[in-house]
Design brief:
By secondary structure, this protein is mainly α. The protein contains 9 helices and no strands.
Length: 191
């Protein structure tokens, strides 16, 4: 009998294979194997950077936040209990570390520089970091609205999870999401 794998069977197999690879590398990294940790880094750095960039809307900050995520990951490998996929746990760590990093950096920049961003500066930044219209709109959103929009609409977090990550009320998360959707819709309508 000739059995052909369907696309779904192939995807399931690839996911299972990747999870086994992550587990083997994670187990070795927990024992101090830096080569295994480097392999984990190489497997996941693109996805981590992508989430950091969406949350920061700034290439330099996203690069620094990505580095901070992997520093924290190395320090806290023992906290991964294996009850979820490593990639799911890493995604959560990335969200938390990136938002904390942004808050720290924002405080430092506000102390060092007291300038307001002009619309010309904003247009230049948006043009240099975004290719698609949706990305441009996301990067234009106010910081908290952008965080909630990215976490909810793009990354699939529930408002209860976002509220915990951002240390806000669930209603605040929902209000920021509604605000973000309204702003994006307004920008789309203006075109």
């Amino acid at each position: 009998m000739n059995h052909k794998l369907s696309v779904f069977d192939t995807q399931d197999y690839q996911i299972a294979e990747k999870n086994l690879q992550d587990k083997a590398l994670l187990d070795a990294a927990k024992l101090g194997d830096k080569t295994a940790f480097k392999s984990l880094y190489e497997l996941h750095v693109g996805r981590v950077y992508g989430l950091c960039f969406r949350l920061c809307a700034d290439k330099s900050l996203a690069e620094d936040a990505t580095q901070e995520v992997f520093i924290q990951l190395w320090r806290n490998l023992g906290n991964f209990d294996g009850n979820s996929q490593f990639s799911t746990w890493l995604h959560s760590v990335t969200s938390n570390v990136t938002i904390s990093y942004i808050r720290k950096q924002r405080g430092w920049w506000q102390k060092m520089f007291s300038i307001e961003q002009t619309s010309a500066m904003e247009k230049e930044a948006i043009g240099s970091i975004a290719d698609s219209n949706l990305e441009q709109y996301i990067y234009r959103l106010p910081e908290r609205a952008r965080w909630v929009f990215v976490l909810h609409a793009i990354e699939g977090y529930r408002h209860e999870e976002i509220a915990t990550i951002l240390d806000v009320a669930v209603g605040t998360s929902k209000a920021q999401f509604h605000r973000a959707k309204g702003l994006i819709q307004g920008w789309i309508d203006d075109e």
